[in-house]
Amino acid sequence: MPALAYTAEEMDRYIEAWSQPGAVPGMINYYRSSVRTPAKKAEAAIHPIKAPTLVIWGQRDAYLGEEMAEPEHDDVPSLERVERLPDASHWVHHNNAERVNQLRLASSHQPNLGEHMRFHRGGQFAAWKQPVLFSAELRAAFRTLRSR
Questions:
Q1: What range defines the domain where residue 42 resides?
Q2: 52 φ/ψ sector (left φ>0, alpha ψ -120 to 50, else beta)
Q3: For an engineered disulfide with 90, which of 30, 36, 42, 61 has Cβ 3.0 to 4.6 Å away?
Q4: Considering the domain boundaries, does residue 3 fall inside one?
C-alpha cells in the first residue's frame, strides 16, 4: 500500500475547495463527459501528440494500469522516454516532487524553463493551494481576451 499522497493539512485545503458552490458538480462532470462521449467520436477527436514528450510514471499507481505508461508510437511519435518512479503513486508529483522537477528540467524539450516551471507540492492542483494568486492570473487572462 503506497503512502498517502497528501498531508492532513493538504486534504483540509482540498475539502475546503470542494465545499465551494459548484465545485463537486464540476469535478463529477469532468469524468461524466469522458464516458458519455461515444467511443467512435472520442477516438476521432484524438490527435497524435507531436511535441517531444516525457512520461513520468508512478509504479504504485492504483488507478491506471502500468500498460498505460507506454503510449503507442502513432499516438506519441516524439516520445523521449518513460521514467518510472518505483515509490510514487498516481499522484507522482506529490510523492516525489523533487525528482519530477529534476526530470522536467533535464528534459531536452524544456531547456530554458528553469525556475518558472517548478512544482511545489500540488502540481496541477496548485491553484487550490494559492487561490488568490490563481484568481488574479485568471482574471488578468480574461481581461486581455475581453479587450480584443
A1: 8-146
A2: beta
A3: 61
A4: no
Residue 82 lies in a domain: yes
SS3 of 31-63: the string is HHHHHHCCHHHHHHHCCCCCCCEEEEEECCCCC
Which pTM was predicted?
0.58
Which of 135, 133, 129 lies closest to 9, judged by CA?
A: 129
What is the per-residue pLDDT across 13-43, written as a single tens digit (0 to 9) for each?
Answer: 888 888 888 888 888 887 777 777 787 887 7
Task: Count how many domains the chain has.
Answer: 1
With respect to residue 112, please indicate whether it lies within any of the assigned structural domains. yes
- Cα dihedral 96, 99, 100, 102 in deg (nearest 10): 160
Place of cell 517531444: 52
What is d(CA 124, CA 122) in angstroms, rounded to the nearest whole number? 6
